[in-house]
Predict the 3D structure of the following.
Amino acid sequence: MAETFDATDDKRITNNVMRHEYRKLQQQEMVQMKTIKDMGLDFFNMIDGLGASREISLAKTRVEEAVMWATKHITR
């Protein structure tokens, strides 16, 4: 089973098959990444509370994608 750790932890290279090397994030980048993920989670949870439909499912997927691309930008 994969080890779990915080997304800003330098151990995030563990069990990584795509990015074999990471650079150490600066403090500002770690704060930005956490802020984006926190805001994304808040928005995701608000949308989730609206009910269930195809549109809600698509909206939740797009929130996840937005968070992914924003954090990918920070960690590039």
Remarks:
- The first helix runs from residue 27 to 48.
- DSSP finds two helices and no strands in the chain.
